[in-house]
Amino acid sequence: MADVRDKLNGLPAKPGVYLFRDTKGAVLYVGKAKSLRPRVRSYFQSGRGDTRQSIPRLVSRIDDFEVIVTRTEVEALHLEQNLVKRYRPAFNVRLRDDKSFPYIAVTVEDEYPRVMFTRERHRRGVVYFGPYANAKKVRETLDVLNRVFQFRPCEGPKPGRHSGIPCLDYHIERCHAPCVGYISKELYGELIDEVIEFLSGDTRPIVRALEERMREAAADERFEDAARYRNRLFAIQNLAERQGADRRETGSIDVIGIAAEGERAAVQVFPLRGGKMIDRHGFHLENVEGQDVTTILEAFCTEYYGNAPSIPPQLVVPRETGDVEALEQWLGERRGSRVEVRVPERGEKARLAELAAQNARLALDSEAVQAEQKRLRRVEALEELREALNLESLPLRIECYDISNIQGQQIVGSMVVFQDAVAKKAHYRKFAVRGLEGQDDFAAMAEVISRRFARLGHLTDEEYDEGFATAPNLVVIDGGKGQLSAALAAMQSYDLPRVAVIALAKRVEEVFVPGSPDPIVLDPHGPGLQLLQRIRDEAHRFALDFHRRRRSAKARESLFDTLEGVGPARRRALLHHFGSTENVVAASQEELEGVPGVPAKTGRAIYAQLHRSGGA
């Protein structure tokens, strides 16, 4: 901290961005300022004006900081947005769990790009449109676009199957079948450009093109084709009207309402197009404690409009909003023309602003009620387990273990963790069980438990694993008395703190505890058993998923064993050249013939063998 205070004296009094980092170099917070010197120094001054309760927690973790000077506050806002996207700092205002908001993604860097529904937007080489508030409308939009543009709906970076035969989507006019060369890369690229153009708000080119094709088909007496183009034209026009995406429409405004309490805030967006409210979008923010409305508004707008298909020429914002000149310039640059951010004083816009604020407050209160009900339900579940299982304390950390295999092959184990009755996925761990002959679930469970609790002791920094570092209050074994006995025997080999162990049998949901021949039967409708079932089912899902992936990988590895003329050396050459078995299967005959270390004749034979068997 002494070094940090020394650096404060050399800060410039210019606009820019500052980044606070912890001892590991991770970015804790990214902020912007009109003048860096007073803004950054304010965090470290006693009796500072900043009353946010999160600030002491932030400052206590700061080990270093850096500043980036910009020419203007608008440039700082741009840079702040990019850095927040890059680092996702823990203390910045953000849309809560933005994975929950749907986007439309276009994988522009693929040879034949996909247009797809997604809930993430952090991959490189992908253009995102959104976020949208309604997943159903996004899927409806994609359905209409697919019928009109016929982009490929298949998954993966490369189109189609390996059989060389177009799938059903081609025959029902949902795909141009690039997998078999029925459309060139150039024409497919133009099609994707039209999709991007439409999603960006410019619908006129595709409407004109469809109208022209419809007229040409009618003139040539191809009436079925003309009807098909007419239906697509109607679909596109209806979709454009429903989305209200024409950014040139003079009657387009977004009315934004904000309600904040503690660390949470709710935002309501009322989009008006042509003077009519066409929808309502609701969002929730985190880390807003102590922030003024202007800061919350800036954080939301950079997140929301940073990826929106269009930006209206005017935003109506809450009356508490302060200086928004930088935000106006940022929005104007994104839109390509002036955007007015306006606080209404009277009239219809003031009424709408008040309505948006009321809806934001209702959303925030409703979320608070739901969150409290869920919290009480979790507490009730933990209390019920403590009482029914005679535990010394609440089982705040519960770990559950499961084994998955098929006839003793590819045996794997899973460990899932629930902290305060909520899944803590960062602490999930999976185990590949080694050295067992045949199917022996008891021995497999013993090995998994041994390997887990061996990691609980005093380890070096290289061996430290956060998921294994904390002892559980309760261990749940998926199985019956046999699995429970195996787990207990494995745990007795270690000097452990007091850890309760139970087994949950699937058949009639009986709970077995050590030292008791009779099971404990919990209320099937009670929150305690429902929590155990949820944990057990999650452990089973996690183990099964790992087992399937290992089995699939083993099957892909065995592919080379079926190929004539491919020994260990040529297998290594193929994998080194293509990077994976999937890429070998997807390779063309010319690509296989050109692999260094593999004769061209052998490459042709490999291609023939793969495609004779349908790529399996």
Q: How would you characterize the overall build of this protein?
A:
The structure is a single chain. This protein is of the alpha+beta class and 616 residues long. It folds into 5 domains: 2-92, GIY-YIG endonuclease (3-Layer(aba) Sandwich), CATH 3.40.1440; 99-243, no CATH class; 253-300 and 313-365, no CATH class; 397-554, Nucleotidyltransferase, domain 5 (2-Layer Sandwich), CATH 3.30.420.340; 563-612, 5' to 3' exonuclease, C-terminal subdomain (DNA polymerase, domain 1). The strands form 4 sheets. Strands 4, 8, 9, 10, 11, 12 and 13 form a 7-stranded mixed β-sheet that branches. It is built from 20 helices and 20 strands. Mean pLDDT is 82; it is low at 244-250. Helix 5 (135-149) packs antiparallel against helix 9 (223-243) and helix 13 runs parallel beside helix 15 (481-491). The longest helix has 42 residues, at 347-388.
Keywords:
GIY-YIG endonuclease, single chain, globular, seven-stranded mixed sheet, 44% helix, alpha+beta, 616 residues, 20 strands
